[in-house]
Amino acid sequence: MRQNITYSFFPSDPKKVIASTPKDVLVEDLRSMLFIRHFETRAEAAYMQGKIGGFFHAYTGQEAIQTAAVRAFGLNHWYTTTYRCHALALLLGAPPKEVMAELFGKKTGTAKGRGGSMHLYHDQMLGGFGIVGGHVPVAVGAAFSSRYQKQKKMSLCFLGDGAFAQGAVHESLNYASLWSLPCLFVIENNQWGMGTDVARAICSQPIAEHFGPAYKMRSYTLQGMDYTNCLAAFQDIKKYMEKEKKPVLVEAVAERFKGHSISDPGLYRSKEELQKALKKDPIALLQKALIDAKIIDEALFQTTDEEAKQSAIAALDYAEKSPFPDPIELEEDVLEWPRGD
Ligand SMILES: Cc1ncc(C[n+]2csc(CCOP(=O)(O)OP(=O)(O)O)c2C)c(N)n1
After folding, report:
1. At residue 159, what are phi and psi to the nearest 5 degrees?
2. Which of 56, 62, 132 gets mutated to test ligand 1 (max ligand atoms within 8 A of its CB)?
3. What is the pTM of this model?
4. CA-proximal residue: ligand 1, atom 2 (nearest)
5. Which atom of ligand 1 is nearest to the CA of 190?
6. Ligand 1 site: residues with CB under 6 angstroms?
7. Nearest CA to 214 among 247, 244, 192?
């Protein structure tokens, strides 16, 4: 049974956020969220048919968070995330065909088919990491390099609630605070670390509200299913970080609609709980808000949805037709350490 947590969410009025955001931006972000959903749905189907191997962790349900963060901050920053990394790669501009090909382990994939679902990289995106919490020191390192070189770049690091129990995460938070590094830590609290309820893993909640002051960081709690709340909060955070040049700790409260990974039957969550979660669909919420504000109508929504679906199918088709890497290339691009005798 879920604990009842009282959160102090970042205050925002959806209508005001919509009124102050250019229409094309809102429609583009709705399109991105729809595309991420269709992309993962197609990929999941391919996985079930045995066309994709390895691990597969869907971002389904959490789309509003990274869509809003990338919108507010823009592309010219460092980004790191966990193995649940398809959405971030797509949002940062990785070509969907190449991302899909990477899931298929094909030569045309973003990492030449060697990384798969958990190891997506693109320009400013430093991963895609399989080790829980392992990317957080990397994000802090990126923030340190930016500060050291007197650049304006910030480092955005997405991590799960489960990762927050890791030692490396706390060492990173301490270091970032001590050195005033431009690092934004976004804990995406989707309530579960595999099958473990967040309340059984983390000693105190709300996470950011509790731990932010301990690390002398400004903290924010976001309604992670509401794009408008995430957008308003990330815009505010960006301004703060640009001015104060300090790290920030965020908890985005969300739901994941799928199991932890594709092979997880989700037996730890009751059907009622899942149904309740599905009612908070961030895409449906944004769709309704944009229709109510007369920014789109139902027909435009259907067209946008269909286009997103067709783009995902095109990516799937490309991946299926792409060749596998030649086994002779297996040792290429592998870092060789100098061997001491
Ligand atoms: C260091 C380490 N310990 C354990 C695991 C196994 N593991 C993979 S995902 C996961 C749960 C992480 O949950 P959370 O951080 O909340 O992220 P979410 O999957 O919910 O996005 C665990 C324990 C791992 N990959 N790395």
Report:
1. -145, 165
2. 132
3. 0.97
4. 132
5. 20
6. 82, 84, 130-132, 160-163, 190, 192-194, 260
7. 247
Cβ atoms of residues 240 and 248 within 8 Å: yes
Closest atom of ligand 1 to 260 CA is 19
Q: Which amino acid is at 35?
A: F
| Strand, coil or helix: 218 | strand
Is the predicted pLDDT of residue 338 greater than 90, yes or no? no
Distance CA 38, CA 285 (A): 17
Distance (angstroms) between ligand 1 centre and the Cα of 107 equals 28
Q: How far apart are alpha carbons 125 and 158 in whole angstroms?
A: 11
Q: Dig out the tokens for 245 from the structure.
A: 């040049």
DSSP element (H, E) containing 238: helix 227-244
Contacts of 28 (CB under 8 A, 6+ apart): none
CA 257 to chain CA mean position, Å: 14
- For residue 297, the tally of other CB atoms under 10 A from its CB is 10
- For 67-88, the pLDDT digits (tens) are 999 999 999 999 999 999 999 9
**What residue spans define the domains of the chain?**
14-262+269-318
Mean pLDDT of 32-36: 98
Mutate to test the pocket of ligand 1, among 186, 194, 205, 207 (most ligand atoms within 8 A of CB): 194
Single-letter residue type at 50? G
* Class in CATH terms, 14-262+269-318: alpha beta
pLDDT score at 333: 85
Distances (CA, A) of 44 to 49, 86, 117, 257: 9, 12, 11, 13
Query: Residue 213 pLDDT more than 70?
Result: yes
